[in-house]
Amino acid sequence: MIPVRDDLRALEGYHSAQVDVRVRLNTNESPTPPPDAFREAVAAEVSKVEWHRYPDRAAMALRVAIAESHGVDAAQVFVANGSNEVLQTVLLAYAGPGRVVATFEPTYQMHAQIARITGATVVEGERAEDFTLDPAEVERVLTEHQPHVVFLTSPNNPTGLVEPADRVQQLLDFAPGLVVVDEAYAQFADWTALDLVDEDTPLVVTRTFSKTWSMAGARLGYLVGPTWLVAELEKVVLPYHLDTVKQIAGRLALRYVEDMDDRVAQIVAERGRISSELEALGLTVIPSGANFVLFRPDGHDGRAVWQGLVDRSVLIRDCSGWPRLANCLRVTVGTRDENSEFLSALSDVLSASTADFRSHPQTEQNGADR
Fold first, then answer.
1. Last residue of a domain, one of 220, 238, 255
2. Are 53 and 166 in the same domain?
């Protein structure tokens, strides 16, 4: 057996529990599909695809459509297979051996994972107990480590917190290198860093079609940044990396903005309902500007709560074993019926847990001591 690179031996791949359940609320997908008109439009165009020809290498029609939706030039847009490939391409161009990438934890795991895969050194800033980001910590990390690339996710995953505009501006003021604002969940929030993108600022904003556009199955993402940066990305991206069908689907999706806005409004309303009901159950709820809610079942074991939900055919994300997220769980906002089933199952699990504690208080205490 040939050994893997020394610097990769300690890494693990990205994992998310795959369990056969009735209600699946663990992967932050859209709970509803795109409109039928979108499906029909895609089918019509795909029927005319010249399958024996390579796709448009520059994906120009898609880039133009994205650019028009944001009021920027197509030369400022880079597209790839999901926002993860966008991030990977940025890090291949601007990170790598001998370079430093900064994150502020907890945050999206793939930022550090991809950075390490490129051979970069990763430094981790620390968030406060409430998961907010202290300006002094930002200044410390940037001044002490002088990162070549710094990531900020807003709304943050897995916490859901929206970073204030002045925090992004602080990064731009202090960072010696590239600032990447990951906005995978931006449409659920109340502001975007896209307005800060220009030719003179080393800032890129990444987006995805997976969430609000209901296209997780397509794996399509993009960034908006300075034209000079987009041109550099072309040096490291593989030729013809974005297939023709994906380019068609992304371009056509942008015609259905009203449908997307309606889905966002429904998810935001359900997010508020979930948060309110979790608080009514006495749980700690982290304010969310995304399509999910992070919470802590205080007085109960998070892993046991997760398993109790699975036993009731409801799957959410168990974050309790992640660094800095002890006893935390994350639920994706689903349809109203799915959310109601989750809340009902959670109430049952918590009630059963409380009843079990009252029946066996000494056993529970001993277990906690261990």
1. 255
2. yes
Per the structure, the complete domain to which residue 203 belongs is given by 36-255
- On whether the CB atoms of residues 348 and 355 are closer than 8 A, the answer is no
Instruction: Give the residue from 292, 290, 307, 320 showing the smallest Cα distance to 348.
Output: 307
pLDDT in tens, 84-129: 999 999 999 999 999 999 999 999 999 999 999 999 999 999 999 9
Q: Tell me, yes or no, whether 1 lies in a domain.
A: no
Query: Is the CB of residue 78 less than 8 Å from the CB of residue 66?
Result: no
- Give yes or no: residues 170 and 89 share one domain: yes
Contact between residue 64 and residue 79 where contact means Cβ atoms under 8 Å apart: no
Instruction: Please provide residue 337's backbone torsions phi and psi, each rounded to the nearest 5 degrees.
Output: -65, -40
How many domains in the chain?
2
CATH code: domain of residue 270: 3.90.1150.10
Sheet of 77-80: strand order equals 77-80, 221-224, 203-208, 178-182, 149-153, 100-105, 121-126
- 92 Cβ neighbours under 8 A, 6+ residues apart: 118, 236
